[in-house]
Amino acid sequence: MKKVLEGMPMTLAEFFTFDVEPQQPRVFYQAKELPNLGNDQIKLLLVGTAHERRDIAILKEHYEPGADTGPDMLTHEGQEGGVIIAGSIELTVNNETRVLGPGDSYYFDSKLPHRFRNIGQQVCEIVSASSPPTF
């Protein structure tokens, strides 16, 4: 989906919230208000969808046990970073792989091939940010 939208002047967030009533920009959001841009295995909950011009994308990510962004490494413009809140995640960036747990963090150039996999037995929660927003 992300690849398809690269050729269109629309972000992933705009695509998934296209028919939602326009909202006034706000400061606070409740958990139940965050749209899921992912799926059942990998939830990508986007903060701040009501802002017309977001310079960063802030996500609360949930990876179910066994969830994987896929065998094809991800690449896109910008930079991203995050902090693991609960569980663990195996993160591969370029040719380097690490298993990160609660309190661990990452930051990298998103043009580098990368992949996220939950190899643990519990849900992994991450709070992340990327700029420019690709969601």
From TrEMBL:
Signal peptide: none annotated. GO terms for cellular component: cytosol. Keywords: DNA-binding. InterPro entries: Cupin_2, RmlC-like_jellyroll, RmlC_Cupin_sf, TransReg_Diox_bact_type. PANTHER family: HTH-TYPE TRANSCRIPTIONAL REGULATOR, HTH-TYPE TRANSCRIPTIONAL REGULATOR PUUR. GO terms for molecular function: DNA binding; DNA-binding transcription factor activity. SUPFAM superfamilies: RmlC-like cupins. CDD domains: cupin_XRE_C. Residues 61-128 form the Cupin type-2 domain. It holds the Pfam family Cupin_2. This is Putrescine utilization regulator. The lineage of its organism: Bacteria, Pseudomonadati, Pseudomonadota, Betaproteobacteria, Neisseriales. It comes from Aquitalea magnusonii.
